[in-house]
Amino acid sequence: MPKITVHIAEGGTELNLDDGSSKAGHMWITTENGESYGFAPLQSEQFGPGKIYTNDESNYKSTLYEKTIEVTDSQYKDMIKFMKDPANNGFSLDYNAYSHSCVDFVWKALEKGGINTKNFEGDVVPSNNVDDLKKLPSKTPEVDNKTSENSSKGPPIHRVSFNENSLNTQKDDPSIDNEDLNINTMA
Question: Which domain covers residue 125, as residue numbers?
Fold first, then answer.
């Protein structure tokens, strides 16, 4: 099953690619294959046109918190579809630091993937979302259902045939661990 990771950098985090540091902090999502998706303004302003940035993972020198969540293939595809083209999936690219920011983008992506089931929009300050992310499961219920469906078939059965003479040979052979074979050796 694929996994996504939500990252939170707090205000003041130094940046690698851009000069300076993040003023308010940031939230973004990475995928298992290293793709990174975050929403921020085109200019370093509180309001104005925004865009999806795919370099957040390499831009932020550190994170305050990270949460990895295992999802189904379907959930993963739904999230990727949204993050690659949010404008065509109901998310405006007009940035507003107080009501339509990186925080809203991440929680909307989690909603599209069926993880944020209560349409939670998050706290305005990225670092104030840590407690809410901690409440999310490490695996979605859909992953648990798929796992239990696959495991309900039971473990593979290995059949071993032997006769009384081979059992006695195995019992007396020091290279064979009888406990691993689950053989009751009565002396």
Answer: 3-149
